[in-house]
C-alpha cells in the first residue's frame, strides 16, 4: 500500500454480554458479535443488541460459546463435538430468528472464549462448527483466529472467512494469544491498545509478550466490550485509527 489512506479494517466488539457499556461501545465499531444465550445473554438482550446494530448501521454477528455462565464461557468444558454442534446450532438459530423478525441480516459467526480457542486447533470441533454454519445459512461468514487451521477448513468448505486479530490481547511468539491470567495477556491502556491496532493494520505484525515480532494478517480487529473502561478504549481506538488515515468499515471476503 502506498500510504496510510489506503488502509481499511473492520473493527468488531463482543457485545450483549451484560455490560452497561454496550450502547457506547457500539458507536465506535463496524461489526458486533452478540452473545446468544450460551455464556451470556437471553432473548431480551439479543433483541436489544439487534436493534442497536440496526440503529448504528453495524454488521450483526452471532457469538456462541460454551453453556457456562458461571465461567463466562472461558473454561474448557470438554464437550464432545456433537454436544458442541447442538449448543452452537441452538444459540445461532435463536439470534438468527430474532434478527430475521427485526429485518436485520445476520452476517457472521464468531465462537467465544474457550470454544474459540478449541475450534482454532481441534479439527473435529472445527468441522462441526462449519457444518452447523452451512446448515443454518451457507452465506454466513466464519470469524476465527488469524492463521488458525479453523479458517483453512472453513475456506475449504466454501465458507467466507474473516481472519481476526486482537487490539487488546497479548500475543505469544507462535501467533496465539497469551492465556488470560498470565502477564501481558490483557492490554488495558487506551494508548497501548491503539498502538497495537495500528501495528497490526499498517505492518501486519504484532510485538509478542517476549519481544519478538510476529506476522499476523487480519481482516477484522476485536476490542472486547465486557471489561471496565471498554467504551473509553473503543473511542480512543477509533479516533487513533481514523487519525492515522485508517478507514473503519465492515468487510466481506
Give a quick rundown of the structure.
The protein is α/β, with parallel strands linked by helices. It has helices at 22-25, 43-56, 81-102, 113-121, 123-136, 149-156, 190-203, 230-243; strands at residues 8-15, 31-35, 59-63, 106-109, 141-145, 161-166, 205-207, 213-215, 220-224, 247-248.
Judging by the overall fold, what is the CATH architecture?
Alpha-Beta Barrel
Strand content: 15-25%
What structural category characterises the helix and strand content? alpha/beta
How can the largest sheet be summarized?
Answer: 7 strands, parallel, barrel
Find the count of extended strands (DSSP E, 2+ residues): 10
Unreliable runs: none
Strand-and-helix sequence, N→C? Answer: EHEHEHEHHEHEHEEEHE
Distance between the termini: 19 Å
Cα Rg: 17 Å
Tally of DSSP helical segments: 8
Helix content range of the residues, please? Answer: 25-40%
Structure notes:
By secondary structure, this protein is an alpha/beta fold. The protein is built from eight helices and ten strands. It has a single domain (4-248), classed as TIM Barrel (Alpha-Beta Barrel), CATH 3.20.20. The chain has helices at residues 22-25, 43-56, 81-102, 113-121, 123-136, 149-156, 190-203, 230-243, and strands at residues 8-15, 31-35, 59-63, 106-109, 141-145, 161-166, 205-207, 213-215, 220-224, 247-248. The protein is 39% helix and 18% strand.
